[in-house]
Amino acid sequence: MLESISGKTKLLGLIGSPVGHSGSPAMYNYGFEQLGIDAVYLAFDVKEEQVAQAIEAFRTFKMSGNVTMPCKTAATAYVDELTPAAKMVGAINTIVNDEGKLIGHITDGVGFVANLRANGLEIKDKKFVVLGAGGAATAIQVQLAIEGAAAITIFNAKDDFYQKGEETVARVKEYYPGFAIEIIDVNDSEKLAEKINEADYLVNATTVGMGEGNTQTLISDTSLLRADLVVADAIYNPPLTQLLKDAQANNCQIVSGKGMLLEQGKAAFQLFTGKELPVRPNK
Question: I want to staple 205 with a disulfide (CB 3.0 to 4.6 A). Which of 43, 137, 221, 249 is the partner?
Fold first, then answer.
């Protein structure tokens, strides 16, 4: 790769902190190399208070790139335009430099939906229960509304994220008046059971269950995991969370978060290049 870098090579990058663990540089640089695109992708450790200067650098260096935590919300204030999904989510993870105009996108929800479809599943007219009201959860909820879901019930503890969930409900209803979306305390076990029994999909978009060896799950009553319920997790490490193990044991169709991670990267690559991201063999 180094031999191909010239004065015409385009620079793309990731901003956030920490970024040392990120797989984005390897993924995107592999794509550039395979498609013969004269570009290089780097990761930059940027704290939230440095976002304004970092995005000014995007302008100066004519860059596109990605944004990760803790910068995804702050970055919305410094781009020129937000997509409708990014406005509803209130965060971005992708910046496209369109001849000097910086456009903020959010591909988390797009990746989740694409992962469902890659597993032969559809969204339109389906009822969803989504556990969580954080950043990834919000992006998923917004994209489900855009894609024509019949109803979304958000469950979250009465913590700092609960208000964020209420704001998501209000923003979605502003864009889609009459849309069936609500938020309920996850500790209301009767309501949780009622809504899961009515749903077509159960989605975990919290960090509960994250990490190898973690046996935590928000669904302690595994009888709720009936065979015709699709159970999806946004967590990709481990690929099979305790929730997914329990669902699999109850003969539910399960969808791991590993595919979502790949699909959101593919969506961003398409925005950057107009081309499909080549997938590294056996990855």
Answer: 137
Residue 72 is among the residues annotated as catalytic for this protein: yes
Q: What averages of pLDDT result for each successive group of 10 residues across the chain (283 residues)?
A: 82 94 91 96 97 98 95 96 94 96 96 97 98 93 97 96 95 95 97 98 95 94 97 93 98 95 94 92 57
Residue partners of 262: CB distance under 8 A and separation at least 6: 111, 115, 279
Q: Please provide residue 62's backbone torsions phi and psi, each rounded to the nearest 5 degrees.
A: 55, 45
Sign of dihedral through CA atoms 187, 190, 193, 196?
A: negative
Q: Which amino acid, one-letter code, is at 276?
A: E
Q: String of b and e for 219-242 (b: at least 16 CB within 10 Å)? A: beeeebbeeebbbbbbbeebeebb
Tell me the β-bridge partners of 128.
Answer: 152, 201
Q: Which residues pair with 48 in a beta bridge?
A: none
Q: Which residue has the tokens 């979502």?
A: 260
pTM (two decimals): 0.86
